[in-house]
Amino acid sequence: MVPKIMAACCVALSGVMTAGVHAEEYPTRPVSVIVPFPAGGTPDAFARIIAERIGRNWGNPMVVEVKPGAGGSLGATLVANSAPDGYTALLATLSHVTNPSLSSAANYDPVGDFKGVAILATAPVVALVPAAMPVNTLKEFVEHVRQRPGEVNYLMPGIGTSMHLNTEMLKKTAGIDLVPIPYKGIPLGIPDLISGRLSFTMSPLSIANPLISKGLLRPLAVAAPKRVVELPDTPTFAEAGFPDAQVVSWYAIVVPAKTPRPVVERLNQEFNKAIRDPEVRNRLEAVGAIVSEPTSPENTDSLLKAEAMRWSQFFREANISRQ
Fold first, then answer.
1. Mind listing the pLDDT tens digit for each residue in 133-177?
2. What is the mean pLDDT of the chain?
3. What is the torsional sign of CA 128, 131, 133, 139?
């Protein structure tokens, strides 16, 4: 019996020592941040700004890898199944917790398969229509759709994304029917929106603002707690008369569930340090982000749990089934 106890203690001690040495030496090679959406979008730009700063702080590169597909599910599944050694992290967004309820391609548990690292920011999204469409407000657009049941479409960049859910909430709140036209990300559908082949979308501010400035698209409302500086004349959803149609998008970093705690804490420190940097904050705000105050891994875990519970309940009540 004693030898068995001693052996068990040795194994446990070995594990502690391994985790300690690993954390002390970490990182000894580049760390990858998986962005589960197409290149050129806001998540990609957001990740690259932060990764560049952390790489410089570390003296060891942090590499952004774009792995789009299935509304973010492919990238999330890749990270869930990766080695829990701190060398593969995921830039998680709202779709991370909604996809498992919506898509059969989401073969992961958004809470159980991951450990939270840090909450980085929220990102306003803008309700847009082609400049040639004869509507100027969100209420006018809703009336436009009501008069054309089943005829008006929208650019849908992925099931479970904040853009998709904002539109679904608008449909539910306003009692209208909009036909989803799926694209692998907002940027790929913008030409069809500008031309009028698409009639509506919810878009990240960073993509929307240049097109609004050129007069190619018209903003109707912003999904944000208050008006954004870049679009001071555009009302929030609440101001436009649809307070219950607003979904706030967020960005967080997560890693595989069995990643050692010391490594999670090291990553947390580095991401918090990066978003506190004034230059980084300015660059993130320029791409439409509202940067968070530093958070703990536990804050991030709580966000994942709360959002997963909220949206799974919403989908059940709305009879939105897994596809």
1. 999 999 999 999 999 999 999 999 877 778 888 898 899 899 999
2. 89
3. positive
DSSP state, residue 163:
H
Give the domain 22-123+249-317 fold: D-Maltodextrin-Binding Protein; domain 2 (3.40.190)
251 pairs with which residues across the strands?
121
- Bigger pLDDT: 160 vs 209: 209
Three-class SS of residue 78?
helix
| Tokens found for residue 138 | 């969100």
DSSP 177-220: --EEEE-SSHHHHHHHHHHTSS--EEEEHHHHHHHHHTTSEEEE
Rg of the Cα trace of the chain?
21
Q: What is the dihedral of CA 13, 14, 19, 24, to 10 degrees?
A: 100
* The CATH number fitting domain 125-245, selected from 1.25.40.10, 3.40.50.720, 3.40.190.10, 3.40.50.2300: 3.40.190.10
Q: What is the DSSP string of 95-160?
A: HHHHHHHH-TT--S-TTTTEEEEEEEEEE-EEEEEETTSS--SHHHHHHHHHTSTTT-EEEE-STT
